[in-house]
Every structure is written in C-alpha cells, then in structure tokens.
Amino acid sequence: MSDTVERHEFGAEVGRLLDLVVHALYSDREIFLRELVANAADAVDRRRFEALTQPIPALPADAAVRILPDKPGRTLTIADPGIGMGKEELARNLGTIARSGTRAFSQALAESKASDRPSLIGQFGVGFYSAFIVAERVEVVSRRAGSEEAWRWESEGQGAFTLAPATREAPGTDIVLHMRADAEEFLEPFRLHAIIRKWADHITVPITIAEDGKDTPANEGTALWRKPKPEISAEDYTAFYRHLGHYFDEPWSTLHWRAEGTTEFTALLFIPGMKPFEAFEGERRSRLRLHVRRMFITDEAELLPPWLRFVQGVVDSEDLPLNVSREMLQATPVLARIRRAVTGRVLSELKSRAKDAEGYATFWQNFGPMLKEGIWEDSEQRKEIAPLLRFRSSAVEGWTSLPDYVARMPEGQSAIYILVGDNIEALSRSTQLEGFRARGVEVLLLADQMDAFWPERLGEFEGKPVRSITQGNIDLSGLGTAPPEGKAPADVTRLLPLLKAALEAEISEVRATDRLVDSAAVLAAPAHGPDLALQRLLRRAGRPVGGENPVLEVNPRHPLVRRLAALADSGADLEEAAGTLLDLARVQDGDVPREPAEFARRMAAALASSL
Q1: What's the pLDDT score for residue 160?
Q2: What global pTM score does this model have?
Q3: Which Gene Ontology cellular-component terms appear in the entry (predicted)?
Q4: Residue 128 annotated as binding?
Q5: What is the CATH number of the domain that holds 79?
C-alpha cells in the first residue's frame, strides 16, 4: 500500500450498523439509490446557498446529479457538483455515527414490521451506508468547494476504510459503487429511471441517467408546492411526503396553502401517519425546509416550535432576500410572522381533525407527548394546545379530553383531578383512587414521562384548577355519596402523634383521611412542592427532590389502623409497626420499601404468626 494511503478502522458502532443495514434490508435494495441521490441533491442545495454568502465558486448553470451505469465494468456512479467534502469531513461523515443512533436504529429494526424497515435508513441519517446493500466495494472521490484538494475514501464495508489524495476537476462528489454480482439489475437504465420516478421525481435538482452516450433527464424536478392544488393528485402529495421524510407510509394530514397580504409565502406541510424513529436523543428542533422563491436556503430556520417538530414540509417565502444568512434569519420580523402563521395553521388543522375521535387517536398515540411539551414550554400557545390533549380515565373507556371531562363534572366538584404514574394499568388499580371511585369522581390517568411536569404549567382549564390527587389534603366530603359506613372510625387521637414521632425523619405529617376504602394508608405530597410522581422521577434521575417529606394518611375504618389505635391507647411500642405501615403505603404507590430485606423479614414473620 502506498505511503499516501491512510487506513482507518470504522468505529465498532459502524460495523454493527453496516451488518444491520445489509442484512435487514436486503429485500428492499432499491432504496440505496433514493438515499444516495437525495444526499447528492442536498449537497447541490448547500453549495448553491453557501455560494451566496461565502467566497466559493457558484454552481455551474447546468448543475445536475448524474447517474452513470457501466455494465461492462459493473460500476454505478452517482456524481454531483455539490459542496463536496474535505479529508476530515470524509473521515467524520463516512467513518463514524453516533452510538445512540446505532442503538436506536437496531431497536427500531427489531420492533418494526418488515414493510416499515426501508424507511428506517433515511430517518436515521445513515443513507450512505445503504450503498453496501448492492456494492461489494464503494469509492468516494470528493473535493470541497473552495479547495483545490480532492480525496478518495474507499471501503469494502468490512470494518475499515482508506483515505488517499485524489484528483477531481471541479468541486463535488463522485460515489462509485462496485456492484455485487446479484445486483446487476441496477445497471440497467430502464430500472434506474423507474426508481428515480418512484422516489425522486420531485427533487428540484435535475437528475440525469447516462444511456447510449448521452445524459437523459430522469426527474420532473418541479417545485410541487408552487403548483395549484387542483393540478396535484393524492399520489403526487404522497410521493413528495415520502421524499421529504424518507417515509413509506401515507401522510395523516396534508396542508397546502398560499398566504397573501403583509407576508407572502407558500407552504406544503405533512403530519406523518407513523411515529418517526429519532436517531439522536435530545434533537428537539423543527426541520421544515425554508425556500426563497423555490431555492432551498436551510432546514434550520425553526419555522415551527420544537413541540411540532414531527411536521414535515416546505415553506417558500417571497419576502426574504436570496442571500439571507442564518444570522439574519434569527432576527428578521418576516420570519417571525411566518412562524406564527404556520404554527396557527397546524393547530387549526389539529383542532379540525380532533373531531374524528378514531382518526385523532392514531395521531395522539404517535405524537401526543410532543404536544404536552408545548404546554410546558409555550405560554403563548398553552390555551390552544390544552383542548387537543387526550387522556385515559378512571371513569370512561378510550381517550377523553379536558373539555369532555369538565362537561361530565358533577355539581360541587371544583377541580380537575389527575393521577400521574408509570403505566395506565397500575394507575387504574392505584390505592389513590379508592375514595374518588367510591364517590363517582372521575380522575384522569397520566402515564407519559412528560406528565410529571406539564400540569403545573397549565394550572387550570376553563377556570377549573388541575390537581394531582397525591398532593395536598383533598376534601372529598362534599363530593358524591360517601363510602359505606361499616364500622365506626377508630379514635386515632393518640395514634397519629405516635406514628409521627416514629417516622419523623421520613414523614412531614400523619393525618386521618376519608379518601380510602379498602386500604389502611396512603402517601400524599405536601400542598406545595412536587407531587409523588415527580418526586420518584427526580430520585431515579439522581436529582434532589426538595420540599417537605411526604404525608402519611391513614384510614380510621381499616382493621389494621383500628388495631394500631387500640395498641396506642394501651401504651404499646409502635415504632416497628409504623415503619411497616409506611412501607406498605410506599409499595401501594409503586415505590420500594425503605429497606426491602427488612420489610420482607417483617412480612414473613407476620404471615407465620397468622397461620
């Protein structure tokens, strides 16, 4: 090997990824061309934009993505005059990928249906690696716009790649696929034309395929969003949606309109029909594409707030200059008006579609947690988002909304009651619900991670405060019919201070409650500070909980509490019994005993003595 050739090992995560891509997606091989052509078109768009703001050569007038099949040589070349890559970019972009993305990708493959798997490639930003589905060796020759140097990247996809100096007359990138023997169908021009028509017809960069010694156009290359709506078929919309988001499904909703007046723009937006697989944890930003008079400018203009980041599409402005910089985008009032208008239109669409309960349930299960983020962080839109939220309930089947809950509230109920936890099944059996169920009071059950946070920000809905039933001293005496009397409540006057003294380090207060029916005790959070669900979440994350210790509420009608009250009156030592009572309350609430081994010992002893 020449001294100028550098050999590099792929990161272990890339080797794993290549194996996943090649073997899991082998039956959907044509997607490699969609991905490589889309990457080439993006490179052309980036060069066009950067040439307006940086001292690099402008695109040639006849710029196009060229596909060159060579059947005798068994190679397929995808060439573009785009922004190109330097040595470091080749090593970084083609040699590594975030470990979190690889982990999420493999998990998504395992959980997906076979029909969904082709879309995973594009959604995870690993489209280049799909080349190895059809190629036994891949060469990439690239020259960065503004540089005189070109570099060659080469790999057989077996754990290593090489980098070496190369020559290329103009900026751009050539990807040369040395095709496998069983992939020669992709060297036939008619097959390549069919794939481009299927997946890339709406890419605005011209695409050509070399056949019979000349380049023939392969795509229509029109800006679909600029066409009048009557001229666009449902199939056209779907094809463009799939190109934008690398999806294979149908869009759940399509929004296409032209705004006129103070600010003029055209928008074509899609709400996906399936939940996207997010490759990088923490990537919370809208990726709508901003165009100015058809020219792609950026997908980092954040045209929608992060809580609407699932929306795909294009916004094409008439009122921004072609050479607008990213810094100018953050400051221009035109873009602020576009953001408000686009956000308002998406919310209007969701309100309209929410009238179809069954169809909206599909959307909610895919993207509901993101709307809850909007309640937490967007004070301007909070009241608009709230009616769009959906919940499980202790009283009705299926999904319900805040307006429906308020409409069902009985006379005398002044608050909207919620219970937050880890899963709906556990919540529906929670001890915390006993008194509410006995009185026919509905409680909304919340089991998303975001549910520990947003209710505090919402505060109230239609004048009704939103209250966690695990927080504060909730008086149920005026709500519904009280539970059956049974035996008279025990006198716990002496018991409560004894329990408080025994548990002083862990409990801020011990009090009697009428919101239990079958259980002896339950925990509650103080009126101020995080509720129990948020406290558990903070502890799991190793974060300080803050605020006061929880409150232990006891049921004076329960046989255990009646027995403890009698022992308290006789002067017995209740320290161990108090600890057991607290641990029982913790277990009922989905938490663990303070000392599991000691708790198990006490339970075993109690069981032995009762047999």
Answers
A1: 82
A2: 0.70
A3: cytoplasm
A4: yes
A5: 3.30.565.10
